[in-house]
Every structure is written in structure tokens, then in C-alpha cells.
Design a protein that fits this description.
By secondary structure, this protein is an alpha+beta fold. It has helices at 2-12, 66-69, 83-86, 147-158, and strands at 14-17, 21-25, 31-34, 42-47, 61-64, 87-90, 97-101, 106-108, 121-131. The longest helix has 12 residues, at 147-158. The radius of gyration is 21 Å and the shape is flat.
């Protein structure tokens, strides 16, 4: 969890992660489209599935494509649509970290063919939480003399 927390701080500006959940999916398991709004601004899925060795089909993380959320803006009645035009499927390759806006509707496609939990889709998932500014190291004014003072002056003249 330390590596996930450090990633969230460095890349997303989130100071923490939720307690991670370990989930496995076997034959018949799926997760329908939903959104994780209250848990945190970014969701993550870390795959522990030996994807190349799997004995099942399905198990991809399904993400509603952004253009689907704004469906009518680009609507063209002369063009047909298939599932792949509306939903992106992310294969849970071993050690792949998938991070996405938790407000984005997402799910897991139905797993078929594996009934043994030891061979199913296995993932660690959760949410990056506590968004806040984050920085490492220090910034010394000598590195860029007058820059901060110049910004303060520029900022105050904009609001006059």
C-alpha cells in the first residue's frame, strides 16, 4: 500500500488510499456499470491475475467512454454503434494498475469458464482519497530570484 499511496501523492495529488479490497471473480461473476462517487476522486484496480495463463473469458474492467457521457453532442443517426463504441474494456494484465475518475461509470465483464477461485480474476482495488496539494523537496527563492514577488504583483494587478 505504500507504493500505491506514494503514486497517488505524486501523480494525483491524493494524500491517502482507502483500505484496499481483494476481489476474485469466477464463472458467472460480474459487476454491472456503477459509479463510486463517495469513496474518493480516483478509483484503482491492481491486477493480480496471471492473464496470459487464465482459463476463463471475460473479467475486463469496463469503462464508459467519455464521449458516451456526452452522447447527444456528437450524435449521428447515420452511424450505428456497438458496445465497443460506448464502453472501453481494459484487460487486467498481471501487475497492471488501472486508475480512473471514480465518477465514471465502470464495471467488470462477466467471467465465464473458471470455477476454481485459484484460477479466477484476482484484483486489489480501492480509491485514492484526501485530495490536497502535495510537493516534495523545497523551493528556494534564489533558484528563481524575484519570481514569487513578480507573481504576487502580477496577481494583485489583475484583481484591481
Amino acid at each position: 500500500t505504500d507504493a500505491l499511496t506514494a503514486f497517488g501523492q505524486r501523480e494525483l495529488g491524493c494524500r491517502a488510499i482507502s483500505p484496499p479490497w481483494l476481489s476474485f471473480y469466477v464463472d458467472g461473476c460480474e459487476q454491472r456499470l456503477h459509479a463510486d462517487v463517495p469513496q474518493g476522486p480516483f478509483a484503482f484496480v491492481l491486477s493480480l491475475t496471471r492473464w496470459e495463463e487464465r482459463r476463463f473469458s471475460g473479467g475486463e474492467t469496463s469503462l464508459l467512454r467519455p464521449e458516451t457521457l456526452d452522447y447527444w453532442r456528437g450524435f449521428d443517426s447515420s452511424v450505428g454503434l456497438e458496445r465497443g463504441d460506448l464502453v472501453a474494456e481494459v484487460q487486467p494484465l498481471f501487475d497492471r494498475l488501472t486508475v480512473f475518475d471514480a465518477r465514471l461509470p465502470h464495471g467488470v465483464s462477466r467471467v465465464e469458464g473458471e470455477r476454481d477461485p485459484r484460477g479466477g480474476r484476482l484484483v486489489l482495488h480501492g480509491w485514492f482519497t484526501e485530495p490536497a496539494p502535495f510537493s516534495e523537496g523545497s523551493r528556494v527563492e534564489e533558484e528563481e530570484p524575484g519570481r514569487l514577488a513578480g507573481l504576487a504583483t502580477e496577481e494583485s494587478t489583475r484583481h484591481v
